[in-house]
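Sample entry (194 residues):
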Amino acid sequence: MGLLDILLGRTRPVAPDLDQLFALPAAAVTLEAAAGFTPTGVGAVCFATVEGAAFEQTHREVQALLDADADRTGPPVELTQDGYGYSWLVSRRSPGQLPQLVNDLHAVNSSMEINGFGPQLLCSLAAFEDERGRRLGLVYLYKRGTFYPFAPLPGAAERRDSALELQVKAALASDLRTEQDLSRWFPVWGAPGL
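Predicted structure, serialized as tokens:
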């Protein structure tokens, strides 16, 4: 960072720290104790859709890598697109396999980053649910290296439970690097698992 950057108030962007994803299993224990939410076994990586042979090759490699896992339950890894034009690579595991799901999310992010698609990565998400059927996503912002909770209201069209999100933020403060800027808690409407 140069003198001009300091004078103009510019800062360097936070480097992604994919190892932060490995804090999710410990945070899940806290989340269950504090709010009654347990993993659903669904996780996904969101990225800006990219066209071209290089991306197709990377997608096939990632999918083959994750589908080759003998412990996988349920359907194979799938690629979906939401109503906003973003792509989601979705992994499904049994609810008790959160560490393996985190490994899947880390592998997808790492593979895309290594193959030059890091700028297209937006976020990763692990889905949770409580006994009342409420859904919650712990969202990892790739470009910020932080997490935030996202809780869509059940049956409501694009409305979120902000009180629950703040409760979860407080409960997980010592477990996850939480995004402090609430304006960056973007809604992920239509995210797989939510």
